[in-house]
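## Example record

The block below lists the input lines for one assembly entry, exactly as stored, with component labels intact.
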Amino acid sequence: MTDVQPQDDAGATEFVSLVAGKQSFCIKITEIREIRRWTPVTSLPHAEHAVLGVMNLRGTVIPIMDLAAKLGLGSIEPSTRHVIVVVAVQGRTIGLLVESVSEILTVTNDMVRETPAVRREDATRCIRGLVEVEGDLSRILDLGALLGGEREEAA
Amino acid sequence: MNDSLKATFFAECEDLLEALSSGLAVVSEGAHDAETVNAIFRAVHSIKGAAGAFALTDLVNFAHRFETVLDRIRSGTLEIDAEVLRIITRSSDVLADLVEAAQSESGAIPEAMDGLVQSLTDLGEAPAAGGAAAADAFAFEPVAFAPICLDLPAAERVFHVAFTPHRALYENGHEPARLFAALAELGAVEVRCDTSRLPELDRLDPAESYLSWTIVLRGDIAEGRILQVFSFVEGLCDLTVDLVDEGVPHEPPALLVHESDGTDKGGAHMAPVDTPAPAAGPVGAAPGGAPKAARPATPGQPAAAPAATLRVDPERVDKLINTVGELIINHAVITQKVIASGIPQNSDLMADLDDYRHLAREIQEGVMAIRAQPVKPLFQRMARIVREAAEATGKDVVLVTEGEATEVDKTLVERLADPLTHMVRNAVDHGIEPAERRAAAGKPLPATVRLSAAHRSGHVQIEVADDGGGLNRERVLQTAIAKGLVSPDAKLSEAEIDNLLFLPGFSTASTVTNLSGRGVGMDVVKTTITSLGGRLTIASEPGRGSVFTISLPLTLAVLDGMVVSVGSETMVLPLASIVETVRPRPGDFMPIGPTGTLLSIRGAFVPVVCLGDVLGLGRHEIDASRSILVLIRTETGSQVALAVDGISDQRQVVIKSLEGNYRAIQGISAATILGDGKIALIVDPDAVVAMASQTPPLSPLADMEFHNDRRAAAG
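Predicted structure tokens for the full assembly:
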């Protein structure tokens, strides 16, 4: 959280960048409710394998998903070093298990590159665009496509 | 805006109808006094008045006839005998139907209405002492600019009513003509319109109130009734009601159309037209007699209001209940942490924590009490069901209720209405024998259906008992065999035969009557009760009658559960479905088929279902030395033993939905939060048993992928 550059441009959006499956992703800061340490969850019967279970977020039962597994990047073996990013999508609150959260990025519209057409995979289907950060690439996650399953990405 | 007004109207109607039926209940016991009759009258009158505002013609017309009869009872010109009681009770039912029809905007007219209208009209038109009979025939013409005189048969008392509407009266959609029409129902009226304040046409503000009226009202009228007519426009007009003549009819005094004697009253009348007149102070002398009452119509003067109540959006209460649930969980979490930190049990902190617990419980009870409602309205509705069922079957039945003040969660009261209706109908239709047979058996007439409610150890118990012939077990068994529900050579105990009633597709009625036997069987009743976390049991004695007992949790927000461990997970089994827990001996297990196991218990064989297996929480061997069995009774009445790894506690848990943020999970009804802050899943035993008897379902993952693929292919 070092490179926060205050920017008042109309087109600027703040993103939180994080690492899952050894790739860098970022989520719009307005979609994030809170970030907390991993605590053991209660597993659910017959859940898809990316769903680790449910946990108690101040009285609300929220499902926790392994973001890497959800994106098909192998699963994370959760430990206290890992972090849960609590996001709100389409009226639901969901926790995403990630390897780490790195920084807040301020991104203007012209910095966002379109995702090149590659093979259809969960990982690419849910990526809305790319941002270059200090030589590295961060993938902007489309949480609606990732978790909602209702919205289809533009073909 | 209009919708919210209407919603308020219907909410009020509900209260009024309730007041009406409780009043009628008192009357039917013969214990009524003048105030009871007044209360009934007021309820009908208020419904009529408000219904008029929404142009609910059927309702208004019916309420009006009903009111006329009630008015005669009130004035003592009509005695309440059995026939009158029957008519007014049926009328209150029809009134409730009309309100319901208006609410659902179905426009349906209750079948019984036409006949009742005739009966009511007959009762209402019997020789009256006052001018009440003429009121019906009175049709009011809207007041034009000219004074209108209406001469109707004169009666004992004469009132002068001075009525000056404010601008706000019209703005709120009131119509003076309606008020006069309502006055005309009380007695003979003469209405004079004072047009003196009308400005020239070119200066006329169409929204301003320029007119005032003087009404001379004759008849045997209580002053309160006049004020009642104006109760909806309180504060929106200047109103004075003077009793000018207490004696026998005589010529009315000259009407003062225009007061200009410079008194305070005149001031109000002469107020400049463009500023609404302020409410006039008490009026001084009125012509032709001592003023009996003169008061400015002001809001906030409750007219014999019932105990003040508060209408609250149930969602707010639910939110509060939720938060209090959190508070209690939070307390448990803190306590656990404090103990873990090694603070001695007798320290101040522990004492404070104890106080915290007491306070939290108190708040919880208080909040639950907000949702709690007495079962009285529900029972009152049942009185009507009994009446209708008795009428339809030609049986003579009375309903006796006990424990009407017992409070139950609002949702439970609502959801109980249908099952209870069905049970009460059944009691009258199937339970009570026909009169001849009762007489032959030397049983009293009328027959009794007893409806009672009571709190019993954290549960609400509701009983429907009849003093009829009891269950004909032989016929029940034969029907069940004929329908293939049990095998012909089955040996069933009495209790088992009784429970056949709850099987789907069972109905003993040889003929389908208009009442019961409409396809909704006792199985549906049973399912509804079970879904509310309750139990339904039956006890019957030949010749003496049957008792159906519903046992329900006090609220739907918490559940009595048994905390069990399955593998590494903690789960909760609802106590309502648990029969007993068993620690089996090795010899109690019998294998059946390649994987199945039966438990031999007291001579019966019960299938064993491994909870962890069914829920996919890893492979568990049923191990007689380790497993603990929880014997549950399913919806169908059969028993199943669930194998778990341990039982740790029995407690109340706060129910949390899983569907809000995730989705429904097969075999799991909800979740709860334990003292350590961890989530435990609440098992749905019936679903688990159903899952165990099926081949393993498709995993949700495969299912979801399939749907995604299909959607992608389609898009």
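Chain A touches chain B at residues 40-49, 51, 54-56, 58-63, 92-94, 120, 149, 152, 155 (CB under 8 Å). Chain A has one domain: 13-148.
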